[in-house]
Design a protein that fits this description.
- Its main location: membrane.
- There is one protein chain.
- This protein is mainly α and 166 residues long.
- It has one domain.
- The chain has six helices and two strands.
- The chain has a two-stranded antiparallel ribbon.
- Helix 2 runs antiparallel to helix 5 and helix 3 (47-66) packs antiparallel against helix 4.
């Protein structure tokens, strides 16, 4: 099958190699882990949402890096992937805003909204080939949500406030 696709020129263009597939798979795996944690905690924007956001962000960044070289005339137009990255951040802000709920004067969903934003950033890092950074931020996610949760509960109990805005 691979040779048929190769003979048809399927892998000829820039960005059509194994490296980009690895970057997409890393984005998928890392953000699925974050989604699994959110799912286990019973929060909205769980496994499917986080994996879709992260994988999509990686794909969008890969398209911005490699997707327009065939239509650009050499030397006349420069491709700037950072412009697309900025739009991903803006778009995820709208998605995150939809996850934040105010009930009886308390705000809920901030951690979940932040996790969606983080999944987009992890996907963007993976799509940009910054795999070590993507892995490091995923590890830090678990330090924050698992390690900081008991500290936040104790602080909130001591201060007599509602639990951390999750």
């Amino acid at each position: 099958m691979h040779s048929v696709l190769a003979d048809a020129g399927f892998f000829d263009g820039p960005g059509q190699g194994g490296r980009q597939i690895i970057e997409l798979l890393v984005a998928f795996a890392l953000t699925a882990l974050i989604g699994l944690e959110r799912e286990i905690q019973g929060k909205s924007a769980g496994l499917r949402t986080q994996a879709i956001v992260g994988t999509s962000a990686a794909l969008i960044l890969l398209v911005s890096k490699y997707g327009f070289h065939d239509v650009l005339v050499a030397g006349t137009v420069e491709v700037d992937p950072s412009r697309v990255a900025a739009q991903i951040v803006s778009g995820i802000g709208f998605l995150g805003a939809g996850l934040i709920i105010t009930r009886r004067g308390a705000v809920h969903g901030l951690t979940t909204a932040a996790a969606v934003w983080e999944s987009a950033a992890i996907g963007m890092a993976a799509g940009a080939g910054l795999l070590l950074l993507a892995v490091a931020v995923t590890a830090l996610h678990f330090v924050i949500v698992v390690g900081f949760a008991p500290v936040a509960r104790r602080l909130n109990a001591r201060l007599g406030e509602a639990s951390d805005c999750t």
